[in-house]
Amino acid sequence: MTATHPYRAVEAVWRIESARVIAGLARMVGDVGLAEELAQDALVIALEQWPVSGVPDNPGAWLMATAKHRAIDTLRRRTRYARKLEALARDPVVTREADEPDLDAALDDHIGDDLLRLIFTACHPVLSTEARVALALRLLGGLTTDEIARAFLVAKPTVAQRIVRAKRTLSSKDVEFEMPAPADLPGRLSSVLEAIYLIFNEGYSATAGEDWMRPALCEEALRLGRILAGLMPEEPEVHGLVALMEIQASRIRARTDASGASVLLLDQDRRLWDRLLIRRGLEALARADALGGALGPYALQAEIAACHARALTPEDTDWGRIAALYQVLAHVSPSPVVELNRAVAVGMAAGPAKGLEITDSLLHERALERYAQLPAVRGDLLAKLGRHHEARQEFQRAADLTRNERERAVFLTRATACGDGRR
Amino acid sequence: MRYMVLLKAARPSSPPPPDLMEAIAKLGEEATKAGALLDTAGLAPSAEGARVQLTGGRLSVTDGPFTEAKEMISYALYQVRTKEEAVEWASRFMRLHRDLWEGWEGEAEVLRVLGPEDFAPPV
Fold it and tell me: Closest partner residue to B85 among A16, A222, A256, by Cβ?
């Protein structure tokens, strides 16, 4: 088999297979750091052999088998070494016969289970969110240290350190390579979903002209979410998160205009929305709904996003439904920002006065003290009520608070427009 | 990045072996669970289709079958990080044909789908 760029072909296989190889090895050796090293050893051998002999027919199996042999060698060496130590110490306890488990069998079954274990381990709550994100992108995404550094706009050594420390923490805290106990599952799953959504948002917040690794994070997060959904099809919040990400990603092309400025949702050219992603998002949401039970925060946010996605024009938006969904979200996952979004929806559904009432209750929220969106929303509602003088003050305040140049320009324009008696 | 994989082959005289169809379904499931396969479908023979042509400023419509030796059999849309990843998935697909349908020949074209990066505003 000829490949035009043999190393790139090997790397492509690596991206597809590495997570499963690492997962299977981690189950064997009980340590994700060691598992990654062994997997990397197999990659090195592949990079040496495949350009010469061609990519094998079943490259995933080849990588797994090669890494497995190195794992067995490593384990044997450790056992021999441990035995030597014991002999030297003349331990009175009789050394047990080394019982090497049937490693072959253990490895071939439960590939999916192993991958799930790897996901939960990489996103363990004992790690900081930054560490979880770096480890997930490395072990599950197969991203290089350099790629992760560029994606998050941090220095390469910082990322390298983060990953080393994360692996050390998992070792030192004796984190088992196991599925969480059923009682712990909701909390552990939360950690995983949080890390994935963090990756997505980092990519979503990337602006035009930045390193392409940044928007690529959205795709990476979507990939991880879809993988998780395939492994845990009975978990509605997993489908909820995937739905939310698919629908948000559907708007990427419409979010920036020709000059690179941000375009608000209601002003976006909906012909640029990716209908395939919307379809996939709505399907994922349907799976979450079909599983029954109360909707969790991700599914609720996805439902809200779906309301927008279904509207062919802004005028078709079902604001009543959105307001009701925010009401539920406010119970399930309360926060001042959720309440502010609810105010916007209520303002559209029941009139600006009702929306304004809700924002009144947010004026003393410490969390929103320096949040430009609060005065911006108030400004918009006041303008709709014809209270132009107050609206101008709010837009001015929003302009003062924001650190985003383009946003400031938008707020100043609206402030000026109020002053002239327009809008 | 997205890539479309278009399968082209001479329309076979017999239907594909069930083993192959089963293996293709499994591969599709694997690619979906890997988060890489976004969409896929088989295409009916051109005998059921039509061609709308524009030549010399005039439109003409012709019913299939078309006279080319190769027909378009199916498409698959992948989300991958590199062209080589798409090539690997297409290769796995073709290897199934090699192993489970003796004598079958065909080609899978791997084409990049234009995305937001192609329409991004200038820096």
Answer: A16
| Phi/psi at A62 (5° precision) | -60, -50
C-beta separation of A115 from A123 below 8 A: no
**Whose CA is closest to B7, among B122, B117, B115, B104?**
B104
Distance CA A243, CA A222 (A): 9
CATH superfamily for B1-42+61-82+106-111 is: Dimeric alpha+beta barrel (3.30.70.1060)
Main-chain phi, psi angles of A314, to 5 degrees:
-55, -35
Q: Hey, which residues does A67 pair with through a beta bridge? A: none
Q: Are residues A383 and A360 in the same domain?
A: no
Question: What confidence tens digit (pLDDT) does each residue in A64-97 have?
Answer: 999 999 888 887 887 776 776 666 555 444 333 3
Give the residue ranges of DSSP H helices in A128-208. Answer: 129-139, 145-152, 156-172, 185-204
Domain assignment of residue A20, yes or no: yes
End position of a domain, from candidates A73, A89, A105 = A89
Q: Does B33 touch chain A (CB under 8 A)?
A: yes
Instruction: Using a CB–CB cutoff of 8 Å, tell me whether A164 touches chain B.
Output: no
Query: Tens of pLDDT along B8-48?
Result: 999 888 899 999 999 999 999 999 999 999 999 999 999 99
Backbone angles phi, psi at A249, to 5 degrees: -65, -25
CATH number of the domain within which A54 lies: 1.10.1740
> Which residue, A70, A89, A108, sits at the end of a domain?
A89
In a domain, A188, yes or no: no
How many CA atoms does the CB half-sphere of A289 hold within 13 Å?
A: 11
For chain B, say whether A5 makes contact (Cβ under 8 Å).
yes
Domain span including residue A82: 1-89
Q: For residue A365, give both structure tokens.
A: 């929220």
Using an 8 Å Cβ cutoff, are A260 and A209 in contact? yes
- Best mutation target, A226, A256, A287, to test chain B (most B CBs within 10 A): A226
Q: Under an 8 A CB cutoff, do B116 and A215 touch?
A: yes
pLDDT of residue B66: 87
Count up the domains in chain A and report the number.
Answer: 3
Determine, yes or no, domain membership for A9: yes
Cβ pair B9, B106 in contact under 8 A: yes
Chosen from B29, B88, B89, B95 to mutate, greatest number of chain A CBs within 10 A: B88
DSSP A15-41: HHHHHHHHHHHHHHHS-HHHHHHHHHH
Is A276 in contact with B116 (Cβ distance < 8 A)?
A: no
Alpha-carbon span B79 to A9, nearest angstrom: 16
- Could you tell me if residue A226 is inside a domain? no
- Whether A113 has a pLDDT exceeding 70, the answer reads yes
Same domain, A29 and A72: yes
Kindly list the domain boundaries of chain B, sorted by start residue. 1-42+61-82+106-111
Say how far apart CA A187 and CA A305 lie, in whole Å: 25
